[in-house]
Each structure stands twice: as structure tokens, then as C-alpha cells.
Design goal:
α2 (40-51) crosses α5 (141-160), α5 (141-160) packs across α9 and α6 (188-195) packs parallel to α8. 37% of the residues lie in helices and 15% in strands. It has helices spanning 6-18, 40-51, 61-78, 131-134, 141-160, 188-195, 224-243, 261-268, 304-320; strands at residues 2-3, 82-91, 94-105, 112-118, 166-172, 207-211, 258-259, 273-277. Strands 2-3-5-4-6-8 form a 6-stranded mixed beta sheet, sandwiched between helices. It is an alpha/beta fold. The chain has one domain: Aminopeptidase (3-Layer(aba) Sandwich), CATH 3.40.630.10. The structure holds zinc ion. Zinc ion binds at residues 1, 122, 143, 176, 293.
């Protein structure tokens, strides 16, 4: 993801013209169903397993190996309902093969929810002061692996507990390749997916994007594109988080405009997607956590408490809040 300054102003102006939060009619009421247990232990292991491949930078063998592993995991959990959407781009002189990975749970259900995260990691550590360190790819324990890990744990849960609605897990590639402010090379997987929808007329009720959901002390204020496009669902999910005792993570404050895969989905498709992303309401000391786009983004900054909070909230939404 990247900071959004000028674009936020332009997009906000467009929003005023078309006003497109059609999630206000969705209600996430307690259905009195039992919600299976999300294991942050298991999610943590899914982070470790991704890190064992090394940085997952498009165009590298580590990226391909990590992709194969994720596909295998999702195939096993979904009973084979996996589609890999392959595409290629040449970026900064590098030929990149990229892969969006999609897994369907309860595939017959027409009523569906989309859960997404990016699985690639950044080829450089822009926020390192030392230029030599800045050229090296980051491990991306939080920025990449954490969102995937929560979704893999949910996939594991769904393999044992069929969800009451259809759930699609979508792992975007090529989110974090662009150099700072070079937006055309960010969100490449999300762009490709919206331009080449694998299923015609795909219309889930809404989408949830998870990005940087694993760090100790994370805060998830209500990200502003999420409020603009899916505010009805955002407010309810943050209320659910508070009911579960997680209002220290899901803080009841308006956050920043963060450009991320959900911005592409919201502006280039009819699907409404919110983003649960660790950031600060006040950008004076940077919008993102100190480890963002540095080599500190490794296993040491990951917290099982944060993974548990995010996992519990999403599991509750999926299993107990949709009629
Ligand atoms: Zn990033």
C-alpha cells in the first residue's frame, strides 16, 4: 500500500459526484450460530512458513515456490476449488510472471463474501535510511504474510466447518512492486483481476481486504476509502470488534486514505471492499508503523494477540453475522 495525498482529493471529489456506498442495506446481525475457534498459533505458523521461502518478490524463484505452496494449501483446504490467474508484466526492465490465487468455499452458494490479501512482498526497503539496506527486499512478515496467514487459517477452519455462506479467498500478487509514488506498478494483481474477472457477474455482498494485520500494537482505524465505499459494513464490523473486546485494535476513529488493492476493486468494479490495515489516524510520525517497508518487518514484530483479534472478528462475520 502507499500513501495517498493528491489522489485522495481527486477520488473524494469523484465520490461526492456518484456516492457509492451501497453496503448500507447489509445488516450483520447476531444469528446465534456457533463460531468455530480461530487459532492464532496456527496463523503464526502460516507466517513462519511463508518467511521460510524468503522474500516473495515477483520474478524470483522464491516467489514461484511460495506460490506453489499457497496453491497446495488452498487446494487441500478447499477440496480442489482453486483457480490460479497468471499474468505477466515487464516492470523496470524485469519480466514478471505473477499469480492471483483464488479459492472457493461452499462453491454452490450464490450468496458470497470475498476475503483478500496481497501475498507478494516488496523488492526494496524504501524506508531504510541506509541506501545499501534500502535496495534489499523485505521479508514482509506483516506486509504480505500476515493477511495471507489469517486467510489460510480461515481456510483451514472452513475445511472442517462448512461456512453458512459462500466464501472466496483471493490472494493478490504484485501489490507492492512500484517504486514510491509510481502507482502504475502497485496493485498489479488487483488491476488484472478487475479487468479480467474469472467469473462473469461475480457479485459478493462485500469484500474484506487484510493488509498488515499481524504487528504487535497494531491499530486499525476506519480507513477512509473503506468508509466512502463500504461505510455501512465498516461501522458494523468495528462494532462487532468492540463487542468481542477488540476496540483497542479496531479503534473507533476515522483513519487515513490508504491506497491499496481495495481502492482498485472499489473504483474499477461494482464490488465494495473495506480494508483492515494497521495505520495511524495522525500522520505526524508517519501513517504506517515503524517497521513498514524496512527490514524490521520480520517475525519479531508479529503478535499472536493481533492475529487473534483480526481472526476472531472475520470468523464471527463469516459464521454468525450473515443471514
Ligand atoms: Zn507495502
Amino acid at each position: 500500500m502507499t500513501r495517498s495525498i493528491l489522489l485522495a482529493v481527486i477520488v473524494s471529489a469523484l465520490l461526492l459526484a456518484c456516492g457509492s456506498d451501497d453496503t448500507a442495506r447489509i445488516t450483520l446481525d447476531d444469528q446465534g450460530r456457533e463460531t468455530p475457534t480461530f487459532s492464532s498459533e496456527s496463523a503464526f505458523e502460516f507466517i513462519e512458513k511463508q518467511l521460510a521461502f524468503g522474500p516473495r518478490v515477483p520474478g524470483t524463484p522464491e516467489h514461484v515456490s511460495a506460490k506453489n505452496w499457497k496453491v497446495e494449501q488452498l487446494r487441500a483446504f478447499s477440496g480442489g476449488q482453486v483457480f490460479v490467474q497468471e499474468f505477466s508484466r515487464t516492470v523496470y526492465g524485469n519480466d514478471l510472471d505473477m499469480f492471483n490465487i483464488i479459492a472457493a468455499f461452499n462453491p454452490q452458494a450464490t450468496d458470497r463474501v470475498l476475503l483478500a490479501a496481497h501475498w507478494d512482498t516488496r523488492p526494496r526497503a524504501d524506508e531504510e535510511g541506509d541506501p545499501e539496506k534500502a535496495e534489499k527486499p523485505i521479508m514482509g512478515a506483516d506486509d504480505g504474510a500476515s493477511g495471507v496467514a489469517v486467510l489460510l487459517e480461515l481456510a483451514r477452519i472452513m475445511s472442517e466447518n462448512p461456512p453458512p455462506i459462500g466464501v472466496d479467498i483471493l490472494l493478490f500478487d504484485g501489490e507492492d512492486y512500484g517504486k514510491t509514488q509510481d502507482l502504475q506498478y502497485y496493485f498489479m494483481g488487483a488491476r488484472y483481476w478487475t479487468e479480467n474477472p474469472p467469473v462473469a457477474n461475480y457479485q459478493p455482498r462485500f469484500g474484506i481486504l487484510l493488509d498488515m494485520v499481524g504487528a504487535e500494537g497494531a491499530t486499525f482505524p476506519k480507513e477512509r476509502y473503506s468508509l466512502d465505499y463500504a461505510g455501512g459494513v465498516v461501522e458494523q464490523i468495528w462494532n462487532i470488534a468492540a463487542e468481542l473486546g477488540y476496540d483497542n485494535f479496531f479503534i473507533n476513529q476515522t483513519g487515513q486514505y490508504v491506497l491499496d488493492d481495495h481502492w482498485i476493486v472499489n473504483t474499477q468494479s461494482d464490488i465494495r471492499m473495506l480494508n483492515i490495515i494497521n495505520h495511524r489516524t495522525n500522520g505526524r510520525s508517519g501513517i504506517f508503523a515503524n517497521h513498514w517497508h524496512t527490514h524490521k518487518d520480520d517475525i519479531d514484530i508479529i503478535s499472536k494477540e493481533t492475529l487473534q483479534a483480526v481472526g476472531d472478528v472475520v470468523t464471527e462475520v463469516i459464521y454468525n453475522r450473515l443471514k
